[in-house]
Amino acid sequence: MLAMSRGNEVGISEPNWLPTTPLEEMSKTRYDVLIVGTGAGGGAVLWRLCEHWKNAGKKIGVIEAGDLILPTNIRNVETMNSQRVNELSYGKRGLVIEVPGTNFREIIAVGGRTLAWNAYSPRMHIEPNEWPFPLHEMEQYYRIAEQAMGVSVSYMAGSPIQQLFLNRLWNSGFSRAQNMPMAADLEPTKYGELHSNVYFSSVKFLARALFARAFDLAVLSRAVGIIANNGKVEGIEAMTIDRKSYTVKADNVVLCTSSVETPRLLLHSGIPGPAIGHYLTKHTVVWSPFKLNREQYPYVTGTAGILLPEQEGFPLQIQVDGPSRAVYYHNKFIPFESEEQVNVAGIGIVQPRFENYVSLNPLKQDRYGVPEVRIQMTYSPYDYAVTALAEQLIGRVVSALGLETTAAFNRDAPLQGDHESGTCRMGVDPVTTATNRFGQIHGIGGLFVADNSVIPMLKAANPTLTTVALALRTADYIALTT
């Protein structure tokens, strides 16, 4: 039976749907690779290493602060609708918790944020020489990530409202409007092979890894310190839910715990690096709900998911989605509703700046004795200019779509929003970046980062696909050098 947990409460009882190993048992083994966190980056690293090392005899361990809460993306649960998803995600006992002093969101559970994401998976618009390795390498890993996650533009294709909206946008000069790339499994269930989990989650990576070879997974096990000596990582200090401390030894450690938690762990462990925690970035978000008058469109609608992607000189993307109720199970729009809601959002770039950062609060600790974080984040004039441009474009898009305004724009503040990135960004210069071009912390052999924090320059696209692609690249490097 499934039970909700926030990583500091008693979780589900055995038997589990995913095999686990007590942290105490893991402390008796030395691992070739130890992965901390099971979100998009951690899951991708685990799966890729298990594929590389099917018969190699290598030891792989995984530590997760949360519990086995859901075996799939929440939107794959048949009882869900938009109201229940919000209640289960953001309610008093919800999946989502907020970083103190912000509304930055974390999900402390096996699968991380991928348990409740919307599966939007566009590629980032990357300029030549903008990242510390050739673009053809990123192209290669984007293709691998898209195949592994089931990304395609087919999810909304054929929807009547989707085609209507696309035609209206194209006829109004928005020639780049396209179907939203979605990480959604659209294969039919046949030949005895199930395809029931449509929306992707990192649990799929863990499942594929498990079928490739064995690995050890400790849940409700919080990493509280990194052990490194003489420029080489040696393992992790971790604590169980009842605060018993263990050392887990490893030749390589991969941190995949978020753009807030990863620098927190590095800083608390005294890992040197002037860029660690700095260059925090995210997306500016401007959005509003709009009305679709169904009396003017009294047909089957389906649902829409449209992307106007970022391009050179256009530092944002526009997303159109809705009618929102159509993305859930067993909702046939009966009885007829005279109005439906369509959301239009502008997602903009925030410049990475040293003065936006994550630091430790020496006056406040969590229950494991680790200092809580302080977050300094402001918008630059450039960031506000991008927000203003997003508002203008939303107005033009809404007019082209023939929607009716229902409310004023919702605008996020610097300490609101989502998609935090950049706090351990990769690059060549150890003064301005935290890791090298393979995600290894400068000057510390065997210590890697493979979550959103390693993205060198967050562009307007949702970051999950990019995080997975970079994590796969890091995993390949580890497999070839270990």
Question: Your description of this structure?
Answer:
The protein is built from 9 helices and 22 strands. With 482 residues, the protein is an alpha+beta fold. The model is unreliable at 1-13 (pLDDT under 50). The chain has one domain (23-481): 3-Layer(bba) Sandwich (FAD/NAD(P)-binding domain), CATH 3.50.50. The strands form 6 sheets. Strands 7, 14, 15, 16, 17, 20 and 21 form a 7-stranded antiparallel beta sheet that branches.
Distance, first to last CA: 39 Å
Mean pLDDT: 92
Please state the CA-atom Rg, rounded to the nearest Å. Answer: 22 Å
The main sheet comes to:
7 strands, antiparallel
List keywords for this structure.
FAD/NAD(P)-binding domain, alpha+beta, disordered N terminus, 5-stranded parallel sheet, 7-stranded antiparallel sheet, globular, 482 residues
